[in-house]
Amino acid sequence: MEGYSRKDVGCPQLLDLIPKEKEWLVKSAEETNYGLSEEKKLELRLGPPGGDWTFKQICGPTNESLLSFGFFPNTTAGATTTAPWQHQTKASFFPLMEKESCRIVELQGAEKKAFSPANTAVPNSSSAQKRTAPAPVVGWPPIRSFRKNLANGNSSKLSPESQKDFSKKPIENCPKNKFVKINMDGVPIGRKVDLKAFHSYEKLSSAVDELFRGLLAAQGDSSTNGIKKEVEGEKVISGLLDGSGEYTLVYEDNEGDRMLVGDVPWDMFVSTVKRLRVLKSSELPMLFCGSKPGKLSLDRSI
Amino acid sequence: MHSFHSMLNYFPEEVLEHIFDFLTSHRDRNAVSLVCKSWYAVERFSREKVFVGNCYAISPERLIARFPRVRSLTLKGKPHFADFNLVPNDWGGYVQPWIESIVRGRVNLEELRLKRMLVSDESLELLATFFPNFKSLVLVSCEGFTTDGLAAIASNCRFLRELDLQENEVEDRRGQWLSCFPDSCTSLVSLNFTCLKGEVNLASLERLVARCRNLRSLRVNNAVPLDALQRILAQAPQLVDLGTGSFVHDPDTESYNKLETSMQKCTSITSLSGFLDVSARCLPAVYPICGQLTSLNLSYAPGIYSDELVKLICYCNRLERLLVLDTIGDKGLGVVASSCKELQELRVFLSDVYGIGNTAVTEEGLVAISAGCPKLNSILYFCQQMTNEALIMVAKNCPNFIRFRLCTLNPTVPDAITMQPLDEGFGAIVKSCKDLKRLSISGLLTDQVFLYIGRYAKQLEMLSIAFAGDSDKGMLSVLNGCKKLKKLEIRDCPFGNVALLADMGKYETMRSLWMSSCEVTFGACKTLAQKMPRLNVEIINENDQIEASVDDKQKVEKMYLYRTLVGPRKDAPGFVWTL
């Protein structure tokens, strides 16, 4: 591990160093990169097209540190201004260089105007390696999410980056229970269930049946809604998960959206569910069409 | 000394305790408790304020056993880099077990200060229910709770003095939590809900302010409009610390005029913040109190540009603490330098967080500040570029830095003029600032800067490094030289196993070490964990599930290790593997 050195610097830095040369460097990058073989890409030189210039020759006496940004092997190991770049035989080095080259190309594509030294961020390169600055690097510049959300102008929504990394949901403490409210259409009193007690949708479904069967039957007597079959006693509540029953199970997730229960893995469901509702299937026209949409844009009056 | 010591032992314990009462810093108390057994005993029964820098270093049960009279507890959870999305949300740091233990231990808790912890509504409800004397809740960068939890606190804590919410992520349940403060609550001294996104009942807020005659600090959120602020100020001219809500209004209205009048009457305000939403045309309302301000935070204020900022700041001659966005520009910083001679702390944040635009401040602004503000001792500076020359000059002008944090937009940018690494500049800083406790470096940096840090930064306690160094030598210099190092956080540096394992005992003298995207391997981490049972070595692997058979030679993406007296934690989620 000794003597390992790796320094990842984005291509805009290269261009930083030779501001005067940036125009032709831009061209040179394009020329050397488009449609060339891998080796050629790796041999990207900072010099005018066709010339066999080395970095040293371009930049004169202050070359030692400039070499530090080059891609080529630097054998001046004893230099006082330590050139951080040393020749790499590790396999990882070459893929890195490839990505650097690609980035130059992408950059040129995106920025038609002359490259400004101050431009330090690369527009979304798909192969953005984490270590390489200044492409969108996770956590750089080091600014708290709170500030980022403000800067985004979003005072009430989460910034896309923070959403990508983690969802800001009220965290259950040491997750021993997860009690959520569950209400059912036609039943004025809700219940609470501990989702941690179930380990599958089927178990949840049968629990819902047990919880509400009696209550529903009691309501049925005082129901004023249309014609009801005069079924005596309690009716089993079934088909909650597949749209086949009289009722369907939906839930409200941590983003406030109403969702059909059953689409995602159980653990993911448990971590994002906020409350449950048992709706009359007739209120979900989409189900009748046989399709099961991911999100229902129903009103939030759960 | 021996006779002195025995003399003290003849004092009754009450006298010792009384002497110890004068020791407020936990470090002093920790030192005192190491002297001898009797001092340890006296100290532990008399300690009321306990500080726990890492909530996993000790268990609540052991803490309560040692300090049964604890009344104020400070806890910190996630590592610092969690602020920058490097640590998954549910990594840990739950306060619930602490509160449960404190309830069981029948501790008379009055103050709770949490930083980077996961707080649930249930936790807050427990607090509110079981601690009738609860006085002060301070939550910084926490999450996991909603306004329902706040409602519980407001409803039940009859003697609440302080509710201070700083930069937390709080889900708004639209439950009118603020209206839950009963009419009998008149004890509030400090109320800060800037970070909340939802609305509060303005009438309730005004009534609350009116009846809390001891209210000194009030920071409202963006949902409180300017005219409401005016009514509040009219009721509370005794305020010392004000955080405005929305500061947008038509200045040609009576409301605005009234605000100016009310503001003028607030002759005690020395600290001003807020401005999450602000129109420059409204800023003049604040001019009358500028001369009394010692602390000013405009860093949440977008769209206020250099000229307007400067117009405000040039009146702030007593300013000791200033937080701004880089929209102030180098020129604006020049005005700060000439107006704010008492300045001690400056923070210049990025205004353009996602964009690729320039920041408006460079090394020039920093040099100007250092030249104009001789009392400067703490700086956080986001900038476009830096030079060694500038840093050397800053080091010469301001040898009193305690905190020096520099962040270049491009983390590996070299000296803007000479293209050299910034080693010499930072070297000058550590050499000159003998009391430096916290340092963050950025820019193009080689092993040399770490040589300087190890050699000169003898008081350094916290060091943050990113994209720097060439080899293990860098990290070794720091570990060997910085005797007082407590927290070391490293990302994207070529430091590997040799550095990690060279002095394993060192980590027991530190609070924690974070290394991400470096060169350390699983094998080395396992070795370290094996040899040092009083360290928790955690590997965070978000992408794959932790496999039992991981190649030792594989590099570790994120490692967080910390000293602990209680072994591996039991609440680690699936993606955290304690070796």
TrEMBL record, chain A:
UniProtKB keywords: Auxin signaling pathway, Nucleus, Repressor, Transcription, Transcription regulation
One Gene Ontology cellular component: nucleus
Cellular compartment(s): Nucleus
Segments forming domain PB1: 177-281
Principal location class: nucleus
Single GO BP term: regulation of DNA-templated transcription
Entry keyword annotation includes Transcription regulation: yes
Extent of Polar residues compositional bias: 117-130, 151-161
InterPro entries: AUX/IAA_dom, AUX_IAA, PB1-like
PROSITE patterns xrefs: PB1
Subunit structure: Homodimers and heterodimers.
Matches recorded under PANTHER family: AUXIN-RESPONSIVE PROTEIN IAA17 (PTHR31734), AUXIN-RESPONSIVE PROTEIN IAA26 (PTHR31734:SF2)
Function per UniProt: Aux/IAA proteins are short-lived transcriptional factors that function as repressors of early auxin response genes at low auxin concentrations. Repression is thought to result from the interaction with auxin response factors (ARFs), proteins that bind to the auxin-responsive promoter element (AuxRE). Formation of heterodimers with ARF proteins may alter their ability to modulate early auxin response genes expression.
Protein name, UniProt field: Auxin-responsive protein
UniProt source species: Olea europaea subsp. europaea
Organism phylogeny: Eukaryota, Viridiplantae, Streptophyta, Embryophyta, Tracheophyta
From TrEMBL, chain B:
Gene Ontology MF terms in the entry: auxin binding
Taxonomy, superkingdom: Eukaryota
Sorted UniProt keywords: Auxin signaling pathway, Developmental protein, Nucleus, Ubl conjugation pathway
Location(s), subcellular: Nucleus
GO biological process: auxin-activated signaling pathway; pollen maturation; SCF-dependent proteasomal ubiquitin-dependent protein catabolic process
SUPFAM superfamilies: RNI-like (SSF52047)
The protein's annotated pathway: Protein modification; protein ubiquitination
UniProt protein name: AUXIN SIGNALING F-BOX 2-like
Native species: Olea europaea subsp. europaea
